[in-house]
Design brief:
heterodimer, A: mainly beta, 11 strands, B: 5-stranded antiparallel beta sheet
Amino acid sequence: DADVTQTPRNRITKTGKRIMLECSQTKGHDRMYWYRQDPGLGLRLIYYSFDVKDINKGEISDGYSVSRQAQAKFSLSLESAIPNQTALYFCATSDSPERGPYNEQFFGPGTRLTVL
Amino acid sequence: GESVGLHLPTLSVQEGDNSIINCAYSNSASDYFIWYKQESGKGPQFIIDIRSNMDKRQGQRVTVLLNKTVKHLSLQIAATQPGDSAVYFCAENTGGFKTIFGAGTRLFVKA
């Protein structure tokens, strides 16, 4: 079974709709991230969470919100979707720095979102 | 500003040949570098990493070289196989959580 799962895998929606993307992990990691991937660009950080009570904005948080429901769950919401939010969205997790200062990130399979 | 870039957007190699994927970074404070592989329809997957106190690190069929003088990172894949076809990303960070990803290089392996 995958360590990091995302639902849905594909979603087509219309401008103005509210959309929630969900991420679950079984790795026991404290840190979770949401990234966006656009063609020709690297992954860009939307939001990140170091634990259940810690939520932080990334470089492109406008138009997005998140909720860390539990250590294993981190959801991303688009309150009112717009076409330029059409992209591939990835959730990732990493271990805490107490276990080592350099931690790789483990990615989910991605959610392809299309906003018409 | 910070940036991680790749010299070539695509690379095509013959099966069995060695592949070299290059990456330039601009933040001299970056001290940890990672290569990720992303196959079609999947999320990025860790391949190999290297810390700034090293020049070279080898894994199974992969080698990462770091040249801090010119801020250059490369990934070498020995005996490239069809299963190596993917997009490869380099990434850097400064010891914290923030990872900056490059745009990626697509590797095509010709049979």
